[in-house]
UniProtKB/TrEMBL annotation:
GO terms for molecular function: RNA binding. The keyword Transmembrane helix does not apply. This is Transcription antitermination protein NusB. It comes from Piscinibacter koreensis. SUPFAM superfamilies: NusB-like. The keyword Transcription regulation applies.
Amino acid sequence: MSEPVQPGNDEVDARADDAGVAAKVAKPKSARRRSREFALQGLYEWLVSRSDAGLIDAHVREQADFAKCDRAHFEKLLHGCIRDAATIDALLARHVDRKTSQLSPIEHGVLMIGCYELTHCIEIPYKVAINEAVELAKSFGGTDGHKYVNGVLDKAAIELRAVEVEAARNARGARPARPGR
């Protein structure tokens, strides 16, 4: 019989069932992941309607399970992404293959969250910020949207977190990172 899943981890666990077949068991979402999901919902609404950020914030807070999210991180992401949208889009423009206005609102919102975390949340390792964005894209985006998000944020990380990216590559013996690759 499988062990119970421990709360508080975002990863998917592979457990063997009674027949020895591995099954994926989703672990409960962390408060931080939930905050990203709610911020994405708000950014989607903002990208589609350009409604007032305060109204969007109020709509999102009415959602079921909002109380389980990291409210401070949600506020930072939603309001920071909306406030810095022009700066974030200028950054994204250097790494995407089309105008940001032509991206799907989901992928655009996910990329905004990823760039915002890479820029303003330096306590979050760059690999975690990218992985969390990829997971958002897998959950809410198109079929291969997560691959696009991963590629764009990998490039953005080289620009925004050059020292951290270089240190990670050196630690595993990879060649030095070059901007634009």
